[in-house]
Amino acid sequence: MADYGDPEAEYRAAREAVALHDASYRETLRITGEDRASFLHGMVTQDVKGLAPGATAYAALITAKGAMVADARLLKRDTDLLMDLEPGTGAKVREFLDKYLISEDAELHEATGEWALLRLLGPKTPEVLAAALGAPFEPLASPASRQVTLAGAPVVVLGPPAFAPQGVDLWVPREALEPVWRALVAAGAAHGLKPLGFQALELLRVEAGVPRYGQDMVDTTIPLEANLTHAISYNKGCYIGQEVIARATFRGHMNRKLTGLLLGEAEAEPGTELRKGEKKVGWLTSVVRSPAQGQRVALGYVHRDHLDPGTELTLGEGPTVKVAPLPFSGTPL
Known about the structure:
The protein is an alpha+beta fold. The chain folds into 3 domains: 112 residues, Gyrase A, domain 2 (2-Layer Sandwich); 84 residues, Aminomethyltransferase beta-barrel domains (Alpha-Beta Plaits, 2-Layer Sandwich); 79 residues, Aminomethyltransferase beta-barrel domains (Elongation Factor Tu (Ef-tu), domain 3, Beta Barrel). It has 7 helices and 17 strands. Helix 1 packs across helix 6 and helix 4 crosses helix 5. It is flat, with a radius of gyration of 20 Å. The two termini are 34 Å apart. GO terms for molecular function: aminomethyltransferase activity.
């Protein structure tokens, strides 16, 4: 759902109190078998074998040429691995993994029909969970998870998503999605909880400088261009596409990087060119109006020669905009 009638109030709730987002449109892949961890370890940019049961990690899947197939949040459990994926990427990821699955004891299962994701965002998240669970809830670190019983269902609580350090993700059995939603809404009533639509979620994401696959990352993006160093383990050994990442890291720079742009009141669409004089030096990928910045802001790719904060670029053939560091914070440049 784009919004619940008042995107500004939803945004404020996520910033100042608590908001609940139905992310059940996301897709889930489950991997079983004795070799599941070692197989996936060789397929993604992140360390999988080194994860303890219950730990999570953010990873990218890339081709042998270093271009992205998808990104994923992984959860390692005692008997399987779960992958949380952007909508529309599940079949693509499964096909990519299947291509390299030869003799390993590992099986891929489409699990979107089994699991749904909810997101609680905001500083009052622990209070809402405590009220829903009937017991204190200790905040989770980002790479951790905890299993709880909520509305009679086994729910996996994951540490904060990248764009919401005061939130949690909840993996809910799909058949229990509605009762768990109702339980959280009831528990949050005393704490100012508001349902949050996709429009406000995107605003939070862009302000946090977090790229989204399908919007800011596509199948020609190299993870280092999108600032995904936190998705890459440099100690794990071989994986598909490792040589490209290693060469780019050794070189010390990418030709372009994802950065922030301050647009003022200029209106622009994703894909709009960024120019320096007559030369194209980048393009926009996400555009929102930021309450925190008091203006429109964007994510976009800019050539490395023009990445310094405060650098002025021309938006298409129109107004001047400024490069800004990510995440967007503090006083606008």
